[in-house]
Amino acid sequence: KGGEQGHVPIRFEEASIESLDESHVAMTTWNPNTNNDTTHSGSRRALGDDSKTSTSGEPFDEPKARETLEDYRVNGKMIQQWRSARQMSEPSTRTPALKSNLQKGLFPYLNAYWDTWYAGATTERKKSVNQMVMLHVANHIIKARQIVVRNSKRLKEIDSKRQELTRELETAAGLSLSLDSGAQGRDKRKLKSKKKRKKTKESIARQVEEKVVGIVCKDQGFTRPRVLIMLPMKNSAFEIVNLLLRLLPEQQKKQVHKRKRFKDEFGPAPEDKPDLIRGADWNATFHGNSEDNFKFGVALHRGSVKLFTDFYNSDIIFASPLGLRTITGPLEAAGSKSSEYDFLSSIEVLVMMQADIFSMQNWEHVKVVLGFLNRKPFEIRDTDFSRVRDWNLAGQSGLFRQTIVVSRHMTLDIASMFGSRSKLPNISPRMRIRPKYGNGAISRVVPPVRQIFQRIECESLTDSYDKRFEYFTQDILPRITNRFGEEGRCLIMIPSYFDFVKIRNYLKKNRHSFANCCEYTQVREQSRARQLFYHGEVQYLLTTERFTFYKRLKLRGARHILFYAPPENPAFYHEAVNLLNPTSSGASAWGDNVCVTLFTKYDALRIVRLVGETRAQRLIGHVGRNIDKGNRGTFMFISDSK
């Protein structure tokens, strides 16, 4: 309906994401049915009133924060488990809902089944956010299962009544059949003809239908899986599954099948220890089992939880994008026997945890998985069509699928996905929550290095790639080579591998002295390149952001740094700049060190994390809604070493 919708820009607000009260977080709300959006700061009553009415007269209610979990209609057994987990011994019959303001602000949107993107899940906040997401997932699965069980029981009772009444009417009409074959023959001979027998049966069926009224139970999809949780690595899955098991009621998890296998395959090895050299940020991502190819199902039964179940017998599917891609294949294979995607046909809740890491792996896998979600199944697998919902039968499952995205920061890939009507077709409103960046990563730079941000003018996103390369080859590279000479050892960090290959080929063609370290470089070649650069035998060291993300090595020896584009992770910026070696010339030991960052207006999400929100508006060239025409595009910052 209505075609494609681009992502809604977020207005910068003075806010912090620590608490979701007024003036403490910038959020964007819009109704996909009306293309109506509102950006606001922190108020859970984002639209001014309890509801917003569009120009077409279609209102939608803003979810309100509740005092207790009972008010959210959370399953009663889950509330008892929540009380037990929080060690609440007071004899209160009503359970205080959530711990922090962060949880109180986030859960109403999850519980209201809004598409929600939380872009501030740092290491400190990740635990609270994960609790809310998995509480919502567990509550959804348990309540849905209760509805199915209750309806199955009602249908069984009605079927029993019909069978009993049918037997009584058949006996009265002389159609009752005995187990004795001779009796069967005698009963058949009582009828004058087969036609009369058929007529009598039809009459009995009508009487049964009139006396025992049936019910219509539309409570299922084509397949059993209801929730898909995508995670980047096995260590993330290990953490999330254990959290799910802690949140499930005790009656539900009396027995957990294959838990030892799960611990062996997904848990950390006994000898695993934190890497103190690479830092806490790297350990938070990679500590434990960091394999990124996995997939398994989880099924909830009465009194037990089964791990590693077949997808078609599972309630929740845990998988990495790569793991799913190995099953589904490319989108072009849809409708063929080589592609398996029927288990994704009835997904009701899609959860993407640590979604920013997907960009560091391969975002194409995510796009392919989204393309297979909620398609009509290729094969029929024990489906009771009398209980399949109408919108599933009509091919509109995606309109009722909730999408929850949790990331450390906002990325262009996620923003493009979250604003796309084709990828996220949910008819419910959407909520995007992002943190406020005060001074940005430049405030964590210790030495007083000259930090130059150079804006490159371009007309479109496609044009920006050529303009950036042209500026680098014709302006930046000659300036470094001619001005600094032997003191020009420069570390060049490039976010995209395609740009890395392009620059590497250019330097090689023009016979520049350089070495390179990327994610595909062998360990021996990495060590050799780092030594050559450290001892000054090459002038340039090329590296990629993915290499920094996975290896987190300290690339020492640089006098200058060039960020070909702002890094996605702001920590990469200040960590690299703080490793600059002082030059031998100049009055000050640090006086001639330079860090240059090239950016375009399409890098706004990255720039704001580096320089803060107030400065970012100036760098991009926008002040409020006006364009700063006097802004020439070159900015320099020097941090205070004191």
Question: How does the helix and strand content classify structurally?
Answer: alpha/beta
Kindly report the spatial arrangement of strands forming the biggest sheet. 2-1-13-5-12-11-6-10-8-9-7
Calculate Rg over CA atoms: 31 Å
Largest sheet: 11 strands, mixed
Residues in β-strands, percent: 15-25%
Rough shape? elongated
Low-confidence stretches: 1-24, 34-57, 177-182, 585-591, 623-630
Instruction: Provide a count of the helices.
Output: 20
Q: What is the percent of helical residues?
A: 25-40%
On the 0 to 100 scale, the average pLDDT is 82
Terminal Cα separation, in Å? 58 Å
Keywords:
alpha/beta, eleven-stranded mixed sheet, seven-stranded mixed sheet, disordered N terminus
Describe the structure.
The strands form four sheets. Strands 2-1-13-5-12-11-6-10-8-9-7 form an eleven-stranded mixed beta sheet. Helix 2 runs parallel beside helix 3. Strand 16 (514-517), helix 16 and strand 17 form a beta-alpha-beta unit. The protein is of the alpha/beta class.
Topology readout:
Layout: E1 26-31, E2 36-41, E3 51-53, E4 59-61, H1 76-85, H2 101-111, E5 115-118, H3 126-173, H4 181-190, H5 194-211, E6 227-230, H6 234-247, E7 255-257, H7 259-266, H8 279-286, E8 295-301, E9 304-309, E10 316-319, H9 321-328, E11 349-352, H10 355-361, H11 363-372, H12 390-393, E12 402-406, H13 412-418, E13 430-434, E14 450-455, H14 461-484, E15 490-494, H15 497-509, E16 514-517, H16 523-534, E17 540-544, H17 545-551, E18 560-563, H18 570-577, E19 594-599, H19 604-611, H20 613-620, E20 622-623, E21 626-627, E22 634-638
Parallel strand pairs: 5-12, 5-13, 6-10, 6-11, 7-9, 11-12, 14-19, 15-17, 15-18, 16-17, 18-19
Antiparallel strand pairs: 1-2, 1-13, 3-4, 8-9, 8-10, 14-22, 20-21
